[in-house]
Design a protein that fits this description.
Shape: elongated
Number of strands: 16
Strand content: 15-25%
Number of domains: 2
Helix content: 40-55%
Oligomer: single chain
Amino acid sequence: MAQQNPEFLYASMPKIYPRAVHGVFAYWRWLGVFITQLVFYGLPWVEWGQRQAVLFDLQAKRFYVFGLVFYPQDFIYLTGMLIVAALSLFLFTAVAGRLWCGYACPQTVYSEIFMWIERKVEGDRGARMHLDEGSFSLEKLVKKTYKHIVWLGFSIWTGFTFVGYFTPIHSLGMEFLQTRMGSWEVFWVFFYGFATYGNAGFMREQVCKYMCPYARFQSAMFDHDTLIVTYDSERGEPRGSRSRQVALNQSGLGACVDCSLCVQVCPTGIDIRQGLQYECIGCGACADVCDGVMDKMGYDKGLVRYTTQNALVNHWDTATMVKRIFRPRVLVYTAILWALIFALGVSLWLRTPMKVDVLRDRGTLARITSEGHLENVYRLQIMNATEVEQHMHIKVRGAAGLAITSGTTADVLPAQSRWAVVDVSLPYEALPPGSHKIWFDISNDQGNVNITEASVFVVPH
Protein backbone atom coordinates (compact mmCIF):
# COMPACT_ATOMS: atom_id res chain seq x y z
CA MET A 1 0.00 0.00 0.00
CA ALA A 2 1.46 3.33 -1.07
CA GLN A 3 2.22 5.76 1.70
CA GLN A 4 0.13 8.92 1.59
CA ASN A 5 1.77 12.31 1.45
CA PRO A 6 1.17 14.03 4.84
CA GLU A 7 0.25 17.21 2.95
CA PHE A 8 -2.99 15.51 1.92
CA LEU A 9 -3.83 14.93 5.57
CA TYR A 10 -2.88 18.33 6.94
CA ALA A 11 -1.97 21.63 5.37
CA SER A 12 -0.90 24.47 7.64
CA MET A 13 -2.76 27.71 7.09
CA PRO A 14 -0.78 30.91 6.51
CA LYS A 15 -0.82 33.33 9.41
CA ILE A 16 -3.30 36.18 9.05
CA TYR A 17 -2.02 39.72 9.62
CA PRO A 18 -5.11 41.97 9.81
CA ARG A 19 -4.46 45.53 8.77
CA ALA A 20 -5.64 48.42 10.96
CA VAL A 21 -8.83 50.02 9.68
CA HIS A 22 -10.83 53.15 10.54
CA GLY A 23 -14.42 53.94 9.77
CA VAL A 24 -18.00 53.77 10.96
CA PHE A 25 -18.07 50.04 11.66
CA ALA A 26 -14.64 50.11 13.31
CA TYR A 27 -16.03 52.82 15.62
CA TRP A 28 -19.04 50.68 16.52
CA ARG A 29 -16.82 47.64 17.02
CA TRP A 30 -14.57 49.50 19.45
CA LEU A 31 -17.62 50.92 21.20
CA GLY A 32 -18.76 47.32 21.70
CA VAL A 33 -15.31 46.45 23.08
CA PHE A 34 -15.41 49.40 25.48
CA ILE A 35 -18.92 48.71 26.79
CA THR A 36 -18.51 44.95 27.24
CA GLN A 37 -15.15 45.27 28.98
CA LEU A 38 -16.31 48.15 31.17
CA VAL A 39 -19.10 45.89 32.39
CA PHE A 40 -16.90 42.80 32.75
CA TYR A 41 -13.97 44.42 34.56
CA GLY A 42 -15.95 47.02 36.49
CA LEU A 43 -18.98 45.11 37.73
CA PRO A 44 -17.19 43.02 40.40
CA TRP A 45 -15.94 46.23 42.06
CA VAL A 46 -19.42 47.75 42.38
CA GLU A 47 -20.75 47.69 45.93
CA TRP A 48 -24.38 47.17 46.92
CA GLY A 49 -24.90 47.99 50.55
CA GLN A 50 -22.27 46.07 52.48
CA ARG A 51 -21.51 43.49 49.81
CA GLN A 52 -20.43 43.01 46.22
CA ALA A 53 -23.26 43.92 43.83
CA VAL A 54 -22.84 40.84 41.60
CA LEU A 55 -21.47 37.72 43.25
CA PHE A 56 -22.09 34.04 42.55
CA ASP A 57 -21.13 32.47 45.88
CA LEU A 58 -20.97 28.79 44.99
CA GLN A 59 -19.68 27.73 48.38
CA ALA A 60 -22.62 29.33 50.21
CA LYS A 61 -25.00 28.44 47.34
CA ARG A 62 -26.22 32.02 47.05
CA PHE A 63 -26.15 34.34 44.07
CA TYR A 64 -26.34 38.11 44.48
CA VAL A 65 -27.44 40.34 41.59
CA PHE A 66 -27.73 43.88 42.92
CA GLY A 67 -30.84 43.86 45.17
CA LEU A 68 -31.79 40.26 44.39
CA VAL A 69 -30.65 37.14 46.24
CA PHE A 70 -31.04 33.81 44.48
CA TYR A 71 -30.74 30.23 45.69
CA PRO A 72 -30.26 27.04 43.64
CA GLN A 73 -34.04 26.59 43.88
CA ASP A 74 -34.35 29.73 41.68
CA PHE A 75 -32.84 27.88 38.72
CA ILE A 76 -36.01 28.60 36.75
CA TYR A 77 -34.94 32.26 36.45
CA LEU A 78 -31.59 31.26 34.96
CA THR A 79 -33.45 29.06 32.50
CA GLY A 80 -35.66 32.00 31.55
CA MET A 81 -32.66 34.28 31.00
CA LEU A 82 -30.95 31.67 28.81
CA ILE A 83 -34.11 31.32 26.71
CA VAL A 84 -34.26 35.11 26.32
CA ALA A 85 -30.58 35.17 25.29
CA ALA A 86 -31.08 32.38 22.74
CA LEU A 87 -34.16 34.01 21.23
CA SER A 88 -32.33 37.36 21.08
CA LEU A 89 -29.57 35.65 19.11
CA PHE A 90 -32.14 34.23 16.68
CA LEU A 91 -33.77 37.65 16.28
CA PHE A 92 -30.54 39.58 15.72
CA THR A 93 -29.29 36.96 13.28
CA ALA A 94 -32.52 37.02 11.28
CA VAL A 95 -32.34 40.83 11.08
CA ALA A 96 -28.63 41.53 10.56
CA GLY A 97 -26.62 38.32 10.48
CA ARG A 98 -23.71 37.79 12.84
CA LEU A 99 -23.97 41.01 14.84
CA TRP A 100 -23.03 39.15 18.01
CA CYS A 101 -19.89 37.72 16.40
CA GLY A 102 -18.75 40.99 14.90
CA TYR A 103 -19.31 43.33 17.82
CA ALA A 104 -19.82 41.60 21.19
CA CYS A 105 -18.52 38.01 21.16
CA PRO A 106 -15.70 37.57 23.72
CA GLN A 107 -13.53 35.93 21.07
CA THR A 108 -13.89 38.98 18.80
CA VAL A 109 -13.51 41.46 21.65
CA TYR A 110 -10.33 39.94 23.09
CA SER A 111 -8.84 39.36 19.64
CA GLU A 112 -9.35 43.08 18.91
CA ILE A 113 -7.65 44.02 22.19
CA PHE A 114 -4.72 41.66 21.61
CA MET A 115 -4.27 42.86 18.01
CA TRP A 116 -4.33 46.48 19.22
CA ILE A 117 -1.53 45.64 21.70
CA GLU A 118 0.35 43.84 18.92
CA ARG A 119 0.11 46.87 16.62
CA LYS A 120 1.31 49.22 19.36
CA VAL A 121 4.37 47.04 20.02
CA GLU A 122 5.27 45.65 16.59
CA GLY A 123 3.59 48.05 14.15
CA ASP A 124 0.88 47.59 11.52
CA ARG A 125 0.52 44.74 9.04
CA GLY A 126 3.64 45.31 6.95
CA ALA A 127 5.90 45.86 9.96
CA ARG A 128 4.63 42.70 11.67
CA MET A 129 5.13 40.60 8.55
CA HIS A 130 8.65 41.97 8.10
CA LEU A 131 9.47 41.30 11.76
CA ASP A 132 8.23 37.69 11.59
CA GLU A 133 9.99 36.95 8.30
CA GLY A 134 13.26 38.54 9.39
CA SER A 135 16.13 36.71 11.07
CA PHE A 136 16.65 36.71 14.80
CA SER A 137 17.75 40.06 16.22
CA LEU A 138 17.76 42.00 19.46
CA GLU A 139 14.90 44.17 18.21
CA LYS A 140 12.80 41.10 17.42
CA LEU A 141 13.55 39.55 20.81
CA VAL A 142 12.65 42.73 22.70
CA LYS A 143 9.43 43.39 20.79
CA LYS A 144 8.21 39.78 20.97
CA THR A 145 9.06 39.48 24.66
CA TYR A 146 7.40 42.80 25.52
CA LYS A 147 4.26 41.88 23.55
CA HIS A 148 3.87 38.53 25.31
CA ILE A 149 4.50 40.08 28.73
CA VAL A 150 1.66 42.56 28.09
CA TRP A 151 -0.56 39.78 26.72
CA LEU A 152 0.11 37.59 29.76
CA GLY A 153 -0.48 40.45 32.20
CA PHE A 154 -3.79 41.29 30.54
CA SER A 155 -4.79 37.59 30.51
CA ILE A 156 -4.04 37.14 34.21
CA TRP A 157 -6.05 40.27 34.98
CA THR A 158 -8.91 38.80 32.95
CA GLY A 159 -8.69 35.50 34.83
CA PHE A 160 -8.57 37.33 38.16
CA THR A 161 -11.70 39.34 37.23
CA PHE A 162 -13.51 36.16 36.18
CA VAL A 163 -12.81 34.52 39.55
CA GLY A 164 -13.88 37.78 41.22
CA TYR A 165 -17.46 37.00 40.22
CA PHE A 166 -17.35 33.85 42.39
CA THR A 167 -15.11 34.99 45.26
CA PRO A 168 -15.45 38.49 46.78
CA ILE A 169 -12.98 40.44 44.68
CA HIS A 170 -11.66 42.67 47.46
CA SER A 171 -10.61 39.72 49.60
CA LEU A 172 -9.41 37.90 46.47
CA GLY A 173 -7.20 40.87 45.64
CA MET A 174 -5.60 40.82 49.09
CA GLU A 175 -5.07 37.06 48.86
CA PHE A 176 -3.56 37.49 45.39
CA LEU A 177 -1.10 40.17 46.58
CA GLN A 178 -0.17 38.09 49.63
CA THR A 179 0.05 34.87 47.56
CA ARG A 180 -2.53 33.21 49.82
CA MET A 181 -5.19 32.29 47.27
CA GLY A 182 -6.83 28.89 47.52
CA SER A 183 -5.82 26.15 45.11
CA TRP A 184 -9.08 26.28 43.15
CA GLU A 185 -8.89 30.06 42.86
CA VAL A 186 -5.32 29.84 41.56
CA PHE A 187 -6.38 27.15 39.09
CA TRP A 188 -9.27 29.15 37.64
CA VAL A 189 -7.34 32.45 37.46
CA PHE A 190 -4.59 30.82 35.42
CA PHE A 191 -6.91 28.53 33.47
CA TYR A 192 -9.13 31.40 32.30
CA GLY A 193 -6.08 33.58 31.75
CA PHE A 194 -4.40 30.86 29.70
CA ALA A 195 -7.59 30.40 27.64
CA THR A 196 -7.69 34.15 26.93
CA TYR A 197 -3.99 34.21 26.06
CA GLY A 198 -4.26 31.22 23.72
CA ASN A 199 -7.58 32.04 22.04
CA ALA A 200 -7.02 35.77 21.51
CA GLY A 201 -3.26 35.72 21.02
CA PHE A 202 -2.74 32.66 18.83
CA MET A 203 -5.91 30.89 17.70
CA ARG A 204 -8.04 33.95 16.86
CA GLU A 205 -9.88 33.25 13.60
CA GLN A 206 -9.43 29.48 14.05
CA VAL A 207 -11.83 29.59 17.00
CA CYS A 208 -14.46 31.28 14.81
CA LYS A 209 -13.87 29.01 11.81
CA TYR A 210 -13.37 25.60 13.40
CA MET A 211 -14.47 25.62 17.05
CA CYS A 212 -17.55 27.84 17.22
CA PRO A 213 -20.75 25.98 16.26
CA TYR A 214 -22.58 29.22 15.46
CA ALA A 215 -20.74 29.57 12.15
CA ARG A 216 -22.07 26.16 11.10
CA PHE A 217 -25.76 26.64 11.80
CA GLN A 218 -26.07 30.36 11.05
CA SER A 219 -27.38 29.58 7.55
CA ALA A 220 -30.51 28.11 9.13
CA MET A 221 -31.33 31.59 10.51
CA PHE A 222 -30.43 33.57 7.37
CA ASP A 223 -32.71 34.29 4.43
CA HIS A 224 -32.59 36.64 1.43
CA ASP A 225 -33.91 39.54 3.55
CA THR A 226 -31.18 39.31 6.21
CA LEU A 227 -28.73 42.21 6.37
CA ILE A 228 -25.22 40.93 5.64
CA VAL A 229 -21.89 42.40 4.56
CA THR A 230 -22.05 42.05 0.78
CA TYR A 231 -19.91 42.92 -2.24
CA ASP A 232 -21.88 44.48 -5.11
CA SER A 233 -20.44 42.43 -7.96
CA GLU A 234 -22.70 44.07 -10.56
CA ARG A 235 -21.13 47.42 -9.76
CA GLY A 236 -17.62 46.20 -8.97
CA GLU A 237 -16.89 43.81 -11.87
CA PRO A 238 -14.84 43.53 -13.93
CA ARG A 239 -12.29 44.57 -11.35
CA GLY A 240 -8.85 45.98 -12.10
CA SER A 241 -6.36 48.67 -11.20
CA ARG A 242 -6.44 52.04 -12.94
CA SER A 243 -5.26 55.62 -12.57
CA ARG A 244 -7.26 58.09 -10.52
CA GLN A 245 -7.26 60.44 -13.50
CA VAL A 246 -9.30 57.98 -15.59
CA ALA A 247 -13.05 58.40 -15.11
CA LEU A 248 -14.95 55.29 -14.09
CA ASN A 249 -17.19 55.34 -17.19
CA GLN A 250 -14.12 55.55 -19.42
CA SER A 251 -12.03 52.83 -17.79
CA GLY A 252 -14.03 49.89 -19.08
CA LEU A 253 -13.82 48.41 -15.58
CA GLY A 254 -16.05 48.14 -12.56
CA ALA A 255 -15.64 50.17 -9.39
CA CYS A 256 -13.39 47.58 -7.71
CA VAL A 257 -9.74 48.58 -8.16
CA ASP A 258 -8.55 45.14 -7.00
CA CYS A 259 -6.45 46.64 -4.21
CA SER A 260 -7.07 43.58 -1.95
CA LEU A 261 -7.39 45.84 1.11
CA CYS A 262 -10.70 44.17 1.95
CA VAL A 263 -8.78 40.90 2.34
CA GLN A 264 -5.97 42.52 4.30
CA VAL A 265 -8.29 43.97 6.97
CA CYS A 266 -10.44 40.83 7.37
CA PRO A 267 -9.79 39.18 10.77
CA THR A 268 -10.65 35.75 9.32
CA GLY A 269 -8.72 36.25 6.08
CA ILE A 270 -11.56 35.80 3.58
CA ASP A 271 -12.24 37.65 0.34
CA ILE A 272 -15.72 39.19 0.60
CA ARG A 273 -15.80 39.47 -3.21
CA GLN A 274 -16.30 35.71 -3.39
CA GLY A 275 -19.76 36.04 -1.83
CA LEU A 276 -21.22 35.08 1.54
CA GLN A 277 -18.95 32.65 3.44
CA TYR A 278 -19.47 30.99 6.79
CA GLU A 279 -16.15 32.40 8.03
CA CYS A 280 -17.46 35.98 7.76
CA ILE A 281 -18.21 37.37 11.23
CA GLY A 282 -19.98 40.48 9.91
CA CYS A 283 -17.58 42.97 11.49
CA GLY A 284 -17.76 45.41 8.55
CA ALA A 285 -13.99 46.02 8.37
CA CYS A 286 -14.01 45.38 4.62
CA ALA A 287 -16.84 47.91 4.16
CA ASP A 288 -14.85 50.57 6.06
CA VAL A 289 -11.66 50.13 4.08
CA CYS A 290 -13.50 49.91 0.75
CA ASP A 291 -15.34 53.16 1.47
CA GLY A 292 -11.96 54.79 2.06
CA VAL A 293 -10.70 53.58 -1.33
CA MET A 294 -13.89 54.76 -3.04
CA ASP A 295 -13.37 58.22 -1.50
CA LYS A 296 -9.82 58.40 -2.85
CA MET A 297 -10.97 57.31 -6.28
CA GLY A 298 -13.89 59.73 -6.29
CA TYR A 299 -16.45 56.91 -6.60
CA ASP A 300 -19.68 56.40 -4.67
CA LYS A 301 -19.34 54.52 -1.40
CA GLY A 302 -21.10 51.24 -0.71
CA LEU A 303 -19.32 48.85 -3.08
CA VAL A 304 -19.05 46.64 0.04
CA ARG A 305 -21.89 47.38 2.44
CA TYR A 306 -24.54 45.99 4.72
CA THR A 307 -27.48 45.04 2.53
CA THR A 308 -29.76 42.10 1.78
CA GLN A 309 -29.51 39.70 -1.11
CA ASN A 310 -32.98 40.65 -2.32
CA ALA A 311 -32.17 44.37 -2.16
CA LEU A 312 -28.97 43.81 -4.12
CA VAL A 313 -30.63 41.77 -6.88
CA ASN A 314 -33.75 43.93 -7.17
CA HIS A 315 -32.00 47.29 -6.69
CA TRP A 316 -34.27 48.29 -3.82
CA ASP A 317 -33.93 51.60 -2.04
CA THR A 318 -33.29 51.74 1.71
CA ALA A 319 -36.96 52.18 2.64
CA THR A 320 -38.04 49.08 0.70
CA MET A 321 -35.16 47.06 2.12
CA VAL A 322 -35.98 48.05 5.72
CA LYS A 323 -39.65 47.25 5.17
CA ARG A 324 -38.74 43.74 4.01
CA ILE A 325 -36.35 43.27 6.94
CA PHE A 326 -39.25 43.60 9.40
CA ARG A 327 -41.03 40.59 7.93
CA PRO A 328 -43.46 38.26 9.79
CA ARG A 329 -40.66 36.00 11.00
CA VAL A 330 -38.88 38.91 12.68
CA LEU A 331 -42.11 40.30 14.15
CA VAL A 332 -42.98 36.91 15.65
CA TYR A 333 -39.49 36.62 17.18
CA THR A 334 -39.82 40.14 18.58
CA ALA A 335 -43.28 39.53 20.07
CA ILE A 336 -42.20 36.28 21.72
CA LEU A 337 -39.02 37.88 23.04
CA TRP A 338 -40.83 40.83 24.63
CA ALA A 339 -43.48 38.50 26.07
CA LEU A 340 -40.75 36.39 27.71
CA ILE A 341 -38.93 39.45 29.05
CA PHE A 342 -42.20 40.82 30.46
CA ALA A 343 -43.11 37.46 32.05
CA LEU A 344 -39.63 37.11 33.55
CA GLY A 345 -39.77 40.66 34.93
CA VAL A 346 -43.22 40.17 36.46
CA SER A 347 -42.13 36.85 37.96
CA LEU A 348 -39.11 38.50 39.58
CA TRP A 349 -41.26 41.37 40.85
CA LEU A 350 -43.82 39.02 42.43
CA ARG A 351 -41.22 36.56 43.70
CA THR A 352 -41.70 35.47 47.31
CA PRO A 353 -38.63 36.74 49.22
CA MET A 354 -38.50 33.56 51.34
CA LYS A 355 -38.26 29.91 50.40
CA VAL A 356 -38.96 26.81 52.48
CA ASP A 357 -38.14 23.15 51.89
CA VAL A 358 -39.70 20.57 54.24
CA LEU A 359 -38.00 17.24 54.81
CA ARG A 360 -39.30 14.58 57.13
CA ASP A 361 -36.45 13.41 59.34
CA ARG A 362 -35.86 9.87 58.07
CA GLY A 363 -33.32 9.23 60.80
CA THR A 364 -36.04 9.53 63.46
CA LEU A 365 -39.01 7.18 63.22
CA ALA A 366 -42.46 8.06 64.50
CA ARG A 367 -42.35 7.81 68.29
CA ILE A 368 -44.63 7.87 71.31
CA THR A 369 -44.24 10.87 73.62
CA SER A 370 -44.62 10.83 77.41
CA GLU A 371 -48.11 12.32 76.97
CA GLY A 372 -49.13 9.34 74.83
CA HIS A 373 -49.08 11.25 71.57
CA LEU A 374 -47.52 10.12 68.29
CA GLU A 375 -44.70 12.39 67.12
CA ASN A 376 -42.93 12.95 63.77
CA VAL A 377 -39.81 15.11 63.37
CA TYR A 378 -39.33 17.46 60.39
CA ARG A 379 -36.45 19.58 59.20
CA LEU A 380 -37.38 22.85 57.50
CA GLN A 381 -34.79 24.67 55.41
CA ILE A 382 -35.80 28.33 55.51
CA MET A 383 -34.01 30.53 52.95
CA ASN A 384 -34.04 34.29 53.40
CA ALA A 385 -33.80 36.03 50.00
CA THR A 386 -34.04 39.48 51.61
CA GLU A 387 -31.26 41.47 53.23
CA VAL A 388 -33.00 41.98 56.57
CA GLU A 389 -33.36 39.48 59.41
CA GLN A 390 -36.66 37.60 59.37
CA HIS A 391 -38.52 36.23 62.40
CA MET A 392 -40.60 33.32 61.09
CA HIS A 393 -43.65 31.63 62.63
CA ILE A 394 -44.39 27.99 61.84
CA LYS A 395 -47.82 26.34 62.06
CA VAL A 396 -49.15 22.96 60.98
CA ARG A 397 -52.57 21.73 59.85
CA GLY A 398 -54.15 18.71 58.23
CA ALA A 399 -55.76 16.71 61.03
CA ALA A 400 -57.66 17.32 64.26
CA GLY A 401 -55.32 17.53 67.23
CA LEU A 402 -52.23 18.08 65.07
CA ALA A 403 -49.82 20.43 66.87
CA ILE A 404 -46.21 21.56 66.99
CA THR A 405 -44.56 20.67 70.27
CA SER A 406 -41.25 22.43 69.57
CA GLY A 407 -39.87 24.65 66.83
CA THR A 408 -42.72 27.10 66.31
CA THR A 409 -40.39 30.03 65.50
CA ALA A 410 -37.12 30.53 63.67
CA ASP A 411 -34.88 33.56 63.14
CA VAL A 412 -33.13 33.74 59.76
CA LEU A 413 -30.28 36.18 59.23
CA PRO A 414 -30.17 38.45 56.14
CA ALA A 415 -29.48 36.55 52.90
CA GLN A 416 -28.89 33.36 54.87
CA SER A 417 -30.57 30.01 55.22
CA ARG A 418 -31.02 27.83 58.28
CA TRP A 419 -32.44 24.47 59.22
CA ALA A 420 -35.24 24.44 61.79
CA VAL A 421 -36.16 21.21 63.57
CA VAL A 422 -39.92 20.95 64.12
CA ASP A 423 -41.62 18.28 66.24
CA VAL A 424 -45.24 17.58 65.26
CA SER A 425 -47.48 15.47 67.49
CA LEU A 426 -50.93 13.91 67.17
CA PRO A 427 -53.17 11.97 69.57
CA TYR A 428 -52.26 8.31 69.16
CA GLU A 429 -55.52 7.03 67.67
CA ALA A 430 -56.52 10.20 65.79
CA LEU A 431 -55.55 8.76 62.39
CA PRO A 432 -55.35 5.22 60.97
CA PRO A 433 -51.95 3.69 60.13
CA GLY A 434 -50.32 5.01 56.97
CA SER A 435 -49.10 8.30 55.47
CA HIS A 436 -51.34 11.32 55.84
CA LYS A 437 -50.85 14.63 54.08
CA ILE A 438 -50.25 17.68 56.25
CA TRP A 439 -49.32 21.32 55.53
CA PHE A 440 -46.87 23.70 57.14
CA ASP A 441 -47.76 27.41 57.10
CA ILE A 442 -44.76 29.71 57.48
CA SER A 443 -45.11 33.50 57.87
CA ASN A 444 -43.05 36.45 59.07
CA ASP A 445 -43.77 39.25 61.53
CA GLN A 446 -44.55 41.76 58.79
CA GLY A 447 -47.17 39.50 57.24
CA ASN A 448 -45.80 39.94 53.68
CA VAL A 449 -44.52 36.35 53.56
CA ASN A 450 -46.99 33.48 53.73
CA ILE A 451 -45.70 30.14 52.48
CA THR A 452 -47.43 26.76 52.54
CA GLU A 453 -45.47 23.54 52.06
CA ALA A 454 -46.90 20.01 52.06
CA SER A 455 -45.47 16.94 53.79
CA VAL A 456 -46.75 13.67 55.27
CA PHE A 457 -47.40 12.50 58.82
CA VAL A 458 -46.60 8.82 59.25
CA VAL A 459 -48.67 6.65 61.57
CA PRO A 460 -46.93 3.27 62.01
CA HIS A 461 -48.86 -0.03 61.84
